[in-house]
């Protein structure tokens, strides 16, 4: 997906700023964001449109929603749902999802951060980008106020920083992403201090579980699968370390070690394809570690957690796809079917942008046989999202992934690239 320019700010440690310095920082952020929007508008519009958009930018609301307002918040939340879900308004399907929805609807900073990302990627047209800029400005303003307040590391602040990190992932802004992830880790650390009253919320743990393979706002371990392919949305070692004392330390250690080992194995296999090893070295460097990892992944399946189980199935498919000599099409299709069923049981539904950057969905699509029911399910789930964003003007929804990870015509990444081109209608 083509990425418009977007500025985020590191507000970690903002409480140390003097009132004058804080005022200057806010003025700088506002000036920078508005200048970027004017520059973008000038490159995409004619003189009349440039004048209208410049006038619109100058009309940033003087009143910022600093406290909950149930009628206003409900309206904004319904608007948000219509922006991020294909079916529009979505009823929560689990207690975790209901808690997450309630938090968004009741917390102005999280709502504005969510709208900033959702509006930004609804359409590339200038009017939508200007609306996104206003939401982004408001979110940063509210976040500064919260962080400057004593003991303000609330669930809403954590959710807002997490959402901004996801926005930076879509933006492919690695600097902003690192800033937000670092701030998130510090906030979690503060929540586990002796003076802290509340541990991190359960939905944060869930989102981090989903992030092990391809980061996002859905359980963090799940996103570890994205991390394996170099496209984490929320998954990061610093956040995992910060969560150690809040959640099941054993599960986090298992998933982190497994993810790191698969990344190392993938590098070994890539190196072998470029510079072939002799048979004894292949057995020692690839086949033996591969066998050990498959054993560990199967053990992970026994843990009674939906995100861990779905992550285990996705990683097991990755291992077979990285070194396919010992797998049959029927076996991979069976595993893909199990992954499909596991995804359908997850307690938090992914938004459109989460789905479009979800490597587990892509893994299921490339692993299953061409005419099988599991492949049709994975491809259809991705294709519906692709068609929706293409109708709104984003011609290459996977453009960011292709630019960062594409270019290979063989191996697993080559299969991903072929899938992206197929879904975008480039073949």
UniProtKB/TrEMBL annotation:
Question: This protein is called what?
Answer: Uncharacterized protein
Kindly give the Pfam families that the UniProt entry links to this protein: Fungal_trans_2 (PF11951)
InterPro entries, per the entry:
Fun_TF (IPR021858)
Q: Domain of life of the organism in this record?
A: Eukaryota
